[in-house]
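Continuing the series of single-chain predictions for the mutant panel. This is the parent chain; the variants come on the following pages.
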Amino acid sequence: MMLCCNRLKRIVHSIMIVGAFLLAGSVSAQDSSRTSSTTDSKIRNIDGVAAVVNTGYVTRKEIDDRIVTLQKQGTKLPEQSTLRKAILERLIIEKIQLQNAEQEGIKVTNKELDKIIGDIAAKNKLSVAEFKAKVIASGMTMDRYREMLREDIIVGRYREREVEAKIKISDAEIDNFIAERNRGMGGGPAPRSAPAAKGEPEEIDVAQIFIPVDPNAGVGAQAEAKKKAEALLRDAKGDADFVQLGAMASKENPKIKFQELGYRSPDRLPQLFYEAVRNTGGGQVANSVVKSPAGYHVLKVLDRRALVAGSSPQQQAAPQDTAASTPQNIMITQTLARHILLKNRPGLSDQDAERRLQGYRDQVRAKTADFGDLAKKYSEDGAAANGGSLGWMGPGDLVPEFELAMNRLQIGEVSNPVKTEFGWHLIQVLERRDAQLTVEKQREYARAAIRERKFEQAYQDWMRELRDTATVKILNVEDAASSAPR
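Parent structure:
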């Protein structure tokens, strides 16, 4: 398994699907979802239904199974009541997505499903027969696995059509992104547009560092998120560069997002944001953290400009700083590294994975084993055959936790165990070099980065809209499936 973000995002869906049959909790997470419903809410409650979702429902057993999965993964969990509510909300969204996708006629034929299963088996270096045997050995029937896989694909295609396909990125946005990045690397000040005269319409370019927090999270989680947001606000008001501050926060915690909203008229900004920056000048940070239902926002006004009647945002977007925006190759540092990966799976706790990797690290440091030989023998991804080598990687090519740990290493040094969404890693840096990032590569990177920013916001908006327009009735979320309803 490669760690390059762009490549990973294209295969992570398949990897997660393969992992589905390996997670004991997910084996039966949706087994109850196919039974027919009744109209009597008391009967629903007795039957173990936690919530009615349009014409379907979510069972208490589904919630129980998700909790078991998280527990087996060694995830630190909040108190039971908060956890059950959060999981129920996730299951409700999943149910709505599947229902809407089916209503829209999005289907996966048996022939398509057979081909996808063949591809998944091949990615895991298994024959289809061997893959089916592993599914059955995990405790899941092949028919159930096919059903879950079909649902995942249907929902993925629906999401792609409703969100991803509608994201548009203009050449002007790419130009501005590159110009801002070049200015950040060169340390130059951001350009300022001509401000609007008093009473004239204007557009505001706002950037945010977003610290998400589940609305059902406990007081402790809310307080922790607020504390982090206020710390970022203090740094932003100091000498810290806002873009770099957001990037660093994202690396430390991938849930934190940096986003530039682009030039928007006040009516196109979220009302909470506009109220916070109404009297904030270009280049200044909002006075206080903004709290929304989704979490906490640290805002900065990058620029304010007059809105010229009849002109498009693209026409107005020409950067003022010619030197900063002129296309040019820029120098970046690339790293040649290799790793040993132990994937998340039942039976391997975080403590066991750390202990095993620490043992490999001790062997390498004592020169009793070669890192590459250990990777070939023990690493659980496609790079194992090459001694765990990932090739030359530049900034942004790797998942944040991995890149942050790698960048701290000296040449030849081996890291402590590092956890990412893919499992636990041991990393060794072999070499570093300076390389030119061509204009073409810059534009590819810019387009991908802008798309990721836009997708995150569009996806959250889309999910809220789905939830708001669905008919949902919560019946019993507090009790486990084995408990008598209250």
